[in-house]
Amino acid sequence: MNPVIKVNSVEKEYKHFHLGPIDFEVEKGTVVAVVGANGSGKSTLFKTLMGLAQPDNGYVQLFGLEEQKQVVDVKNRIGFAGSGLYHAFSQLTVNKLAEFVSHWYTTLEKDYYEHLLNRYEINGKEKFANCSLGTQKKVEFVLAMAHRPQLLLLDEPSANVDMLSQRRMREDLKSFMEQEENSIVISTYIQDEVKQMCDYICILDDGKIKGFFEKDEIRHLWARLWISSLPDQLKNDPRIWKVEEHPLQVITNQLPDIEEELLKCQVDIIRIKRLELDDIMEYMFIFNKKTTNTSGVLLKGDDCNHKNKVKQN
Length: 313
Ligand SMILES: Nc1ncnc2c1ncn2[C@@H]1O[C@H](COP(=O)(O)OP(=O)(O)OP(=O)(O)O)[C@@H](O)[C@H]1O
Description:
Elements: E1 5-14, E2 17-26, E3 31-35, H1 42-50, E4 57-62, H2 67-74, E5 78-81, H3 94-101, H4 110-119, H5 133-145, E6 151-155, H6 163-176, E7 183-187, H7 191-197, E8 200-205, E9 208-214, H8 215-221, E10 223-227, E11 240-244, E12 249-252, H9 255-264, E13 269-274, H10 277-288, E14 298-299, H11 304-308
Parallel strand pairs: 3-7, 3-8, 5-6, 6-7
Antiparallel strand pairs: 1-2, 1-4, 8-9, 10-12, 10-13, 11-12, 11-14
This protein binds adenosine-5'-triphosphate (ATP).
Adenosine-5'-triphosphate binds at residues 14-17, 36, 38-44.
């Protein structure tokens, strides 16, 4: 495999925050969603990917190029949106900003840029600073797309953006991914974006990767089962994340194995329900935060890393 992004033992230290060490790879032709709570380090990770923040340790390799060559060879191939990239230039109008950005992205396509401005109902003559928050996000998105990059790094591109424009962004990203060599890394809180677009989910918690999952695989593995009894040998099994009483139910992240064991023990499985992605992520976060029993609910296990890791390079 020749990854588009290779993040190798990257660490970034701020006074009250430590990112990393982070290791992962993004395959060409895939979409990775970076999800995590506020302050978990998503923007810091994007900044290190873009070279806007220098890692204290480790390195980021883009398109398989050596670090020194990246600045020159890579910038036209990346579209970046987010992390207040244009705040220092916010007194420029949107059109002047595009002109300015075209010095970085030498392939900026004027016609495509105009098309995107119309599509997202952006007034190119308005000062960036005077645009609403949602419009600023749309401008960032348009400028990330307008030079037709191969890799999009999008840090919360649809925050504050209206529903119609969010849908258009999803359509545009879907078209973008029709080109085989294109890839996206996106941070988002919008479940539909994760569900509809992403192949992998990277979970960040307190500056560390808590899991790097293939989306379809986790949906296949996580389920709630209603059962007639819970055999003793499964009571402390780390594959069972939660047990609820009345009626007896278990949540597992290893459905095929647990189902087989229950059947071996002649337990009746009354019903199986696959979990939605939002529920799965919630369980992972609850677990990571080591939430304890609050209402007769039993949470199990002690170390999430060995359990929820379907794929982590
Ligand atoms: N330049 C900086 N100097 C000092 N601390 C910083 C700096 N940039 C980020 N941090 C700290 O790093 C931590 C992670 O911030 P970051 O913006 O990466 O989180 P995030 O996951 O993107 O959050 P959100 O979802 O709220 O946007 C925070 O505690 C933040 O205060």
